[in-house]
Design a protein that fits this description.
The chain is of the alpha+beta class. The chain has 3 domains: 96 residues, Rossmann fold (3-Layer(aba) Sandwich); 74 residues, Dna Ligase, domain 1 (2-Layer Sandwich), CATH 3.30.1490; 241 residues, 2-Layer Sandwich (D-amino Acid Aminotransferase, Chain A, domain 1), CATH 3.30.470.20. A 5-stranded parallel beta sheet has the order 3-2-1-4-5, sandwiched between helices. The chain has a 5-stranded antiparallel beta sheet with strand order 12-15-20-24-21. Strands 6-9-7-8 form a 4-stranded antiparallel beta sheet, sandwiched between helices. Helix 1 links the parallel strand 1 and strand 2. Helix 1 packs parallel to helix 11, helix 6 crosses helix 7 and helix 8 runs antiparallel to helix 9. It binds adenosine monophosphate and glycine. The site of adenosine monophosphate (AMP) has 17 residues, from strand 7, strand 8, strand 9, strand 16 and strand 17.
Length: 453
């Protein structure tokens, strides 16, 4: 927390961007376009595209190296640290790296708990009367199993801690729910450990909600809130929403699900009460608050909160964002969103992002496969359209080739006049990109198109 509550943004700001995936590539690309940027430093372990945009930080970026990283930030006169992923936020890096002369974009450890501890997040929502799925939190196996068995109508079993988007099992039957509890909390009879480690020591079992999902992200500076255009993510690995959950297989923005009335209701009944609920606990949230919502027949309900930009939601959002992202990040971190001269503008076109993944994702995968066709993908855009190829998990190998380096490898983001044409362009562009075992969902956006037509 800066000692001076109303610092002035310097003419030029040196930035350190922490994180190295598709979300951070999208952020880096926008930050790089800012007229206020001094130098952009990035994590030396980031993906190939991020390393091509920024200068690699010479210090390791890790919790044990925080003291040295702080000294390095002083030496390089870093004015703003931007933290992309949830794990460092939950680990308190925003607290560690903020000084009198340096702001951090991303919430404190206390505020990041809204994502890192789903059980606690539920308590905050309950106390603030924020609509969410009815649920109970369990620390012990036996009562969790008994409860799961009693849920004839099905339920959702969630690891309370961080599990890279994979810690949620939607269980239509009690048998599946019991199996999910056993997987997460371990099974002494079979001598198995919980599959998410300590993240599954506490679990949440909640009602299975029906409806369309929507991701609503907002810049929150501790006082003011700026709600961004809503996105829709596609979490399940297979077309038609089948198979296990992933970190996100694709997202588009804006979604026609959101009317202005619905967005006002979400801000008034969900986002603002949550921020107020945190404040009553003495916690000031600064950064991006991400509400994963289910639009049920009874209105929008929260499935989860995240304390950062979504990945892949960030890619279509950043593809559409107009104006100076760096100014917005800085103002959010400084608690000065209200002082920005211009608001946030979005390109009127729709952005559709499809994620090319490695064979086997979200299970085990192999890495190191050369990637081709990126330029051909970008060349698919017609007049008035654009294709941006964001890297998610890539690296450069010893032969100077860009190769796959993760489960989610490339996020192809297409901008076009409407969702149908954005999806079509994204699919055509993604089909141009090849690496061994690559696959992607061709139906990003179809769920809503089918529901409307
Ligand atoms: P979460 O990480 O909590 O957003 O959950 C991942 C995904 O699981 C969500 O995007 C939904 O598709 C699904 N999910 C989570 N909670 C529920 C729920 N209560 N009812 C139905 N589906 C859910
Ligand atoms: N796309 C979902 C997430 O970032 O958690």
């Amino acid at each position: 927390m800066p000692a001076n509550p109303r610092p002035t943004m310097p003419e030029r700001v040196n930035v350190l961007l922490i994180g190295g995936g598709g979300r951070e590539h999208a952020l880096a690309r926008q930050i790089k376009q800012s007229s206020r940027l001094g130098r952009l430093w990035v994590d030396s372990t980031a993906n190939a595209a991020i390393l091509a945009i920024g200068t690699p930080c010479t210090e390791p970026i890790s919790k044990p190296a925080m003291f040295r990283l702080n000294s390095w930030c002083d030496k390089e006169e870093i004015g703003l640290v931007v933290i992309g992923p949830e794990a460092p936020l939950a680990d308190g890096w925003a607290d560690d790296l903020a000084t009198e002369n340096r702001l951090v974009f991303g919430p404190s450890k206390a505020a990041a708990r809204i994502e890192a501890d789903k059980g606690w997040a539920k308590e905050i929502m309950r106390s603030a009367s924020v609509p969410s799925a009815e649920g109970r939190t369990f620390k012990d196996r036996a009562p969790a199993i008994a409860y799961a068995m009693s849920r004839e109508e099905g339920c959702v079993v969630k690891a309370s801690g961080l599990a890279a988007g994979k810690g949620v099992f939607v269980c239509p039957t009690p048998e599946e729910a019991v199996a999910a509890v056993q997987m997460m909390m371990g099974d002494p009879e079979r001598r198995t450990q919980g599959c998410f480690g300590a993240a599954g020591d506490t679990i949440v079992i909640e009602e299975l909600l029906q409806g369309q999902e929507m991701s609503v992200l907002a810049f929150v500076d501790g006082r003011s809130i700026w709600v961004l255009d809503p996105c829709q993510d596609h979490k399940q690995v297979g077309e038609g929403d089948v198979g296990p959950n992933t970190g996100g297989m694709g997202a588009y923005c804006p979604t026609p699900l959101a009317t202005p009335e619905l967005m006002s209701r979400i801000e008034r009944d969900i986002l603002v009460p949550t921020i107020d609920g945190l404040r009553r606990e003495g916690i000031i949230f600064r950064g991006v608050l991400y509400a994963g919502l289910m639009l049920t027949a009874g209105g929008p309900k929260v499935l989860e909160y995240n304390c950062r930009f979504g990945d892949p939601e960030c890619q279509p959002l950043m593809a559409r964002l107009q104006g100076d992202l760096l100014e917005v990040l800085w103002a959010t971190a400084a608690g000065q969103l209200d002082e920005l001269e211009s608001g946030l503008e979005f390109d009127p076109r729709t952005a559709c992002c499809v994620v090319l993944c490695s064979a086997g994702y979200p299970g085990s995968i192999t890495k190191g496969h050369p990637i081709t066709g990126i330029e051909a993908a970008e060349a698919e855009a017609g007049p008035g359209e654009a294709v941006i190829v964001f890297h998610s998990g890539t690296t450069v190998d010893s032969r100077d080739r860009v190769v796959s380096a993760g489960g989610r490898v490339i996020s192809v983001t297409a901008l076009a006049a409407d969702l149908t044409s954005a999806q079509d362009l994204a699919n055509r562009a993604a089909a141009k990109i090849e690496f061994a075992g690559a696959f992607f969902r061709r139906d990003i956006g179809s769920r809503v198109m089918n529901s409307i037509s």
